[in-house]
Each structure stands twice: as structure tokens, then as C-alpha cells.
Amino acid sequence: MNQTAPRSLWATRLGFILAAAGSAVGLGNIWKFPYVVGENGGGAFVLVYLACILLVGLPIMMAEFMIGRHTRRDAVGAFVQLQGKRSPWVAAGWVSVTAAFLILSYYSVVAGWTLDYVFRALRGSFSGLPAETIEGMFDGLIADGPRQILWHLAFIALCLGIVIGGVQKGIERWSKILMPVLLALLALLFMNGMLSPGAWEGITFMFRPDFDKLTAGSVLEAMGHAFFTLSLGMAAMITYGSYLNRNEDLLGSSVRIVGLDVLIAIMAGLAIFPIVFSVGMEPGAGPGLIFKTIPVVFSRIPGGFVLAIVFFLLLAFAALTSAISLLEAQVAYLIDERGWGRKRATTFLAGLAFVVGLPTALSYNSLAEWHLIGERTFFDSADLLASNYLLPISGLLVSIYVGWFWSGTEEKEELVAGGSGWVYPLWHFAIRFIAPTAIALVLFFKMRETGLFAWVGSLF
Q1: How much is the pLDDT for 455?
Q2: Contacts of 241 by beta carbon, 8 Å cutoff, 6+ apart
Q3: Where do the TM regions start and end (predicted)?
Q4: How far apart are CA 149 and CA 359, in angstroms?
Q5: Quick one: DSSP state of residue 2?
Q6: Distances (CA, A) of 384 to 34, 103, 162, 381
Q7: What digits encode the pLDDT tens for the residues 342-390?
Q8: How far apart (Å, rounded) are the C-alpha atoms in residues 235 and 97?
Q9: Which one-letter DSSP state was computed for residue 12?
Q10: I want to staple 226 with a disulfide (CB 3.0 to 4.6 A). Which of 57, 320, 372, 418 is the partner?
């Protein structure tokens, strides 16, 4: 471990909040949240989602910040310092760092798609073409392995260029640029959506309460999305917490970060769906909405050329702010536990993420017949393993450890230091009982839904 190098700290509270909010705000906020809202009861789902944010997401975010700030270490080193090298709790740190690495390797490929579409928009590739041709562009992209690899490399290089600069001169400096630009782009798209003919239909699609659609599965979806959208369980918030000043108000900062994350998700829905409805199209899910439906919409509306550029720049910035936190979580481990220099650690891990991401870039072309888990491609298998299993397992371990095994005195001191000691009883109850129960339920039903039980059984 590197014992001599002083710990880098955030220069300002604003820089920390923007960096942490940038980590939480990713591609999922732009397309997944609006879609699951519309499919799961509109306003009814939003209420459940907000409750899950408050009862599960916020307490775990505060817990991860506490662990990081208290130990001044990376996610693995934090548990080593708290419990010792031989403690089974160190597994919580390893699971989170592994999740960060795996997610970055395939997330970079998806982010590369957004860079490709930024350049398509700049060239006016969506103008004057029939819908079938525009929709076919995405199929052509994922079938082109070399093109995906090129954009994958470009995105990894962007992450490397920012993280190699360090906490203040790299991550914080660029977060102060990227996040305001992201918010400005989103505000422009939001205003355009609210002024479009489909504004009311888009608002209704997202927020009209339909309790008939609110099932047990909807509640589990809300719990899972509240957890995953905040970048919890992937070592990022523990790492970012380790750069916090001792007098930082953990409650206030966490509330601001969560608030920004929710606000951006809601604004994204109110920017996307009104223009989709204004041209008489039905919203789709996932890549189909972003890379097929939306470009067709921009080709049909006034000012679509400019809006397409703004929209895909927004996606690229959202992806970048999330990805740099994933890389930093891994870099911190090599710096803290192995004594590596930042340049060496960042370059090594960025290069390794690029190599491991290559099968993802080839999952729908050269390696389309290569199945890893069941009938899933490498891309789908990696996403399944990281998002559905590693993240909730990490979050579950953190909530159980902090709620039941960490010193209550040390926890309370972390809150008192920032002037939020009054919230300790409420926070402790949530992290001890509500959060682990909710995550365990999500994990169990995700395992059953994705067929993990059957897959594991088939191995024996």
C-alpha cells in the first residue's frame, strides 16, 4: 500500500456534487427511466420509485460515502482497514470493484454508439431519408465490428484523458464542465418537448396514475432502478467519498445528488416522449427508442438537425460522466493497495477495459453465435452478471455490514461532522432493516426471472 502519498481531496463541494451526480446520471436516466414509468403505471410508479430512492437509495449512498471518508481508502482497502485483510467483509469491496471493471468494459461500447451517432447527426445523416433507412443504421452499426471497436477505443481514450489528470485537475475540473453542459442540453430539449404538439400526451404517458399497471413486479422494478441509477454497489461512491473533507454534510450532499439524478431522469422523459408523440409514433424501449425511433423523429420535425446533435451530445456526456467514476474506482485500488502511480494505473486499467470490451463489440457480428450464459451473447451475459447480480450483492453486503456490524459511534460521528447527526436514528433504521430487505427481494426475483437458478442447476 502507498503510505506516503497524501490523499487527494475535492477542492469544492460543488465539484464533488457534480462529479457524484455525473456518476449517477448515465444512459439509463435518458431512456430507461421514462420508459419504465410509462409501462408501470405512470404517476403511481413515480411515487413508488421516489419512496425507494428515499428508503433504499439515499441510505446506501450515505453509507458508501461514510465508509470512504472514514477510511480514506478505495473500496477494497476500506474494508481491509475496517475489518482486516482476512475478513470475509473484504469481499464486499472486491465485488464492487469487479462490477465497476466489468460494467466499464461493455458500457464503453454502448457509449461508443452515442459517439457514432453524434457524428451522424453532425453530417445530417438523418435528414431526407425514409424511416426504414434511418432505423437500419443502428442494425448496420452493431453488425460492423471494426467500427464499434474504433468508437470503443475513442471513448476509453476520453475516460483515460480525464481520470489520468487526478481528482481535482481531472475528474472535478471536467465534471464542472460536462455536467453544466449536460444540464443545458437537457433543458433545451425539455423546452422543445414542452412546446411540441405532443407535450400533453407525453406528460400523460409518464405521470398519469394507472394503479391497474402497478403490480408486485412494478414495485421490484422501482426498487431495482432506484438502486442501480445512483451508481451504488460499484465502488464509485466509496471512492468518491474517500476524497471528501471531514466537515462535509453527507446528508445534504447526498440529497442534492439524488435530487439531480431524479430531476434529470424526469426531464429526459419530458423531452423525449412529447416529440415522439407529436409525429404519431409509439415509444419503444432501450436501444430501439434511442437509436431507431428518435432519429426518425428528428428527421420529421422542424429544427431536427440541431436537436439531433444536441440529443446525442447529451447521451455522450451522460455516458462519459458515469464512465469516469467507474474507471476511478479501479484506479484508486491500484494506487491505494498496490502503490502504483496514477498514470500507470489509469493507462493499464483503461487498456485492460478496452481489451475485455472487445467481445462486447463483436457480440452482434463475429461472435454472435458465441453464448456465455445460456443463450445470451457475451454482451448480454456481462450485463446480466454485473447489473443483476454483482451490484445488488455488493449493495446488500454494504447495507448489512453498516447496519449490523460497523461501530454505531463511528457512523454517528460521520454524520455529526457535517451537522446531520439528527438524522442518525432514521438513517440507521433504514440501512439496517429496509435497505437489505428490499435489495434481497430484488436479487431473489431477478435471479428467478433471469433463469440463474435453472442455469446453475444445469451445471451439476
Answers
A1: 57
A2: 64, 65, 66, 67, 68, 69
A3: 12-31, 43-67, 88-109, 149-167, 179-203, 223-245, 257-281, 301-327, 348-367, 387-406, 426-445
A4: 10
A5: -
A6: 21, 10, 28, 5
A7: 999 999 999 999 999 999 999 999 999 988 887 889 999 999 899 888 9
A8: 6
A9: -
A10: 57
> What's the one-letter identity of residue 437?
T
How far is it, in rounded angstroms, from Cα 108 to Cα 319?
A: 8
CA distance 179 to 283: 27
Q: What are 306's three cell numbers?
A: 440541431
State the helix-helix crossing angle for 90-122 and 304-338, rounded to 10 degrees. 150
Label residues 235-273 b or e (16+ Cβ within 10 Å = b). bbbbbbbbbbeeebebbebbbbbbebbbebbbbbbbbbb
Dihedral of the alpha carbons of 250, 84, 74, 233, in degrees to the nearest 10? -70
Residue 449 scores a pLDDT above 70: yes
How is 391-432 classified by DSSP, letter by letter?
HHHHHHHHHHIIIIIS-HHHHHHHHHTTT-GGGHHHHHHIII
pLDDT per residue as tens digits for the range 290-326: 898 899 999 988 899 999 999 999 999 999 999 999 9
What are the phi and psi torsion angles at 375 (to 5°)?
A: -100, 15
| Nearest of 63, 83, 17, 68 to residue 424 by alpha carbon | 63
Determine the residue type at 110.
V
The three state secondary structure string of 112-126 is: HHHHHHHHHHHCCCC
